[in-house]
Amino acid sequence: MYEDSFVKKIKFNLFEFLQSRLGFVLTLVSIYWLKTLWAYMIDFNLDTKGFYQNFIAFINPLPIALLLIGAALYIKNTKAFYITASLIYFVLFAWLFANSIYYREFTDYISISTMMASSSVSAGLGEAAIKLFRLTDVIYFLDFFVLIFLAVRKKIKFDAKAFNKRASFAITALSVMLFSANLFLAEIDRPELLSRGFSNTYIVRALGLPAFLGYNANQTYSAHRDRSEATAKDLEPVQTYIDQHYAAPNPELFGLAKGRNVIYLHLESLQQFIIDYKLKVGDQEYEVTPFLNSLYHSKSTFAFPNFFHQVKAGKTSDAETMIENSLFGLNQGSFMVQYGSSNTQQAAPYILSKHGGYTSAVFHGNSASFWNRNNTYKSWGYHYFFDQSYFSPATEENSFQYGLNDKIMFADSIQYLERLQQPFYAKFITVSNHYPYTTSLIGDEIGFPLAETSDETINGYFATANYLDASIKSFFDYLKATGIYENSVIVLYGDHYGISNSRNLDLAPLLGKNSETWTDYDNAMLQRVPYMIVVPGTDKGGIIQTYGGEIDALPTLEHLLGIDSKQYLQVGQDLLSPEHSQVVATRTSGSFITPKYTSYGGKLYYTENGQEITNPDETTQKEVEALEAAANAQLAASDAIQTGDLIRFKKNDLPPLDVSQFSYIQSLEAEIAIEEKLGDKSTSIYSKNGKKSTVDLFNSPSYQVLHGGKTEDSDSSDGTTTTTNKKE
Q1: How many Cα atoms sit within 13 Å of 122 on the Cβ side?
Q2: CA–CA gap between residue 201 and residue 503 (Å, rounded)
Q3: Partners of 549 in the beta sheet?
Q4: Which of 114, 201, 316, 556 is catalytic?
Q5: Please, are residues 200 and 369 in contact by the beta-carbon 8 Å criterion?
Q6: Where are the domains of the chain?
Q7: Would you identify the CATH topology of the domain 238-706?
Q8: How far is CA 441 from the centre of its chain?
Q9: Is the pLDDT of residue 601 over 90?
Q10: Is 316 a catalytic residue?
């Protein structure tokens, strides 16, 4: 009897609490929390890995929901309180459900720009909107059914007693504290989360949908503010700079690769020092990148050993921005994240589509939303974007946190590459040589020795670089097997450093340097990344000592293709031009690199020998000041273009780009439809091969197979592939 009475008392007290104002608020918060977790599991792909990320995602709906719904507790009037709390809850729910539906079609979250372009959203969903609804969506509405039932049964009672103001403030303070803790945990998982942006998915995964909306609103406001303040007059000094800075093409090389396919190979985190490097372990030396070395020394390759990355917080996204646009990323954050969806842009894919009828595509085995690629690529004019969703399902054996391993990505890409109409502009973004290194290599891919330092990151770097090298060779072999190698120009570039300056003291002995005498000059020289342009059939290539950077890649390519860069707002210079200035600007204020002087880390050095200049004479001082001014002028011109969206005022041969024409859904079907429409006029690899697939021509043997540890027919017990798409 006592136990029954006790249970009844608890039930009564709980029901009584739920009928209170605080109980009502906490009930709404709990329901919203559960609905959000349901959306995370069923509708969204947050790409969480491990307990820590899952825990953050588990708690992140609570702080803001408590803050917003709890704000109603300040209202004294009974009716107004319940209406306000219910309305806030409904808005949060509506935002959640709208994003769930939207995500099913666009694999992204609704941004401010999306809402502002509501017509585009409607067009995107179209008549298929109804089809996006699922039977399981009824779960989102269960609480409303319960509410109607309780209302009919007259079980709902309003609490007329106003909530204490101090208690209301305590709820607000608690929610702020919880959000601060949430943000702290998120920053531990992903440092500079808010300043660098990364992707919409990262923000939602860390802080939740309402926080993402606030974050995106701030970004949108900043972008629109800068854009609205700019006028056509702001273009005049920028245009003057570009005209004066222009480097005319080398007449012997202009148009050398005209009409050829363009293939970009993004060498993740690869640094120039790895070229020709041999890792010594014990008494043996191991060549890290034998295939890249062969390209580097080929007469068909224009190789630049003094090519520097120029990225900042945007890292890989900054490199892509420069490669595609000859414009710098931002001083803070990522251009692709902050402006990629809104700015008028005239990038390489769009330029080549108008000068040569190029079809363009990107292949990347990671999430489409990372660095806002799914939106930025449309603004750049890419016809297709084959992201993670187009490739083999990610497993522990074939991928890691940054996407599919390179051999798998290349192999899976062939079915889409062979359907592109030629000439094409294709970019492949590799990821396996990405920090923390070695984590992507298991099973038969293990074998290249680890370096022997106290830093595990450095130790694994050489193994993943070797894996990258092998994957690149496999792709080159495929190009040759299909017969399209001779009609292509292949550009290989490192996007940024792989080993940070903080680790360079441990790296120094491997480079024949003394850690105790290591200087910022040495750090500066390690900012070199590979840059090679392979033009099959030519013998005019070689190792070119010209100093340059990623900002110079596009004008160089344009001139090789016979397109004059002068008509576009590009701040880089053709590396093959005799007029190239050889001033490499970096995103760190006051830093630059030239063949004569290197300014880095607040210190000045002679580039030739690394000797520090502590007391420059008047002549040297004037030279350095002029070089610094030149670097700053280049950065200033680029920033004016990017933040002011000045390309919209530029009159040239490119009409405004309509991004609504691009959809990255069902791209293979779209490629096949074009083939069928063109019939005998189709120029795809598939069509040229007698309408037979070339997938079997791609072969990527594992490390163990390549080095005699296993045969091609060996079956790995841990699920890793030894040979991918082997020809039967």
Answers
A1: 4
A2: 30
A3: 308
A4: 316
A5: yes
A6: 2-227, 238-706
A7: Alkaline Phosphatase, subunit A (3.40.720)
A8: 22
A9: no
A10: yes
Residue 269's closest CA among 447, 519, 437?
A: 437
Token pair for residue 8?
Answer: 């009844």
Model confidence at 327, in pLDDT bands (50, 70, 90)?
A: very high
- pTM attached to this predicted model: 0.76
What pLDDT, on a 0 to 100 scale, did the predictor assign at position 14?
59
Block residue for tokens 């710098």? 328
Name the pairing type of β-strands 488-494 and 261-267: parallel
Element (H, E) at 125: helix 118-125
Alpha-carbon distance 106 to 665, whole Å? 8
pLDDT digits (tens, 9 = 90+) for 224-281: 777 778 889 999 999 999 999 999 999 999 999 999 999 999 999 999 999 999 999 9
pLDDT of residue 394: 85
What does the pLDDT read at residue 720?
39
Q: Quick check: 482 and 570 in contact, CB under 8 A?
A: no
- The Cα–Cα gap between 353 and 347 comes to 10
Cα atoms in the Cβ-side hemisphere of radius 13 Å centred on 153: 8
Query: Burial, 614: exposed, middle or buried (Cβ in 10 Å; 0-12, 13-18, 19+)?
Result: exposed
Q: Which residue has the tokens 């190009």?
A: 479
**Vertex 76 angle, CA 71 and 77, to 5°:** 115
CA distances 385 to 33, 104, 248, 389, 665, Å, are: 34, 17, 33, 10, 9
**Is the separation of the CB atoms in 613 and 643 below 8 Å?**
no
**Could you tell me which residue, 370 or 533, shows the higher pLDDT?**
533
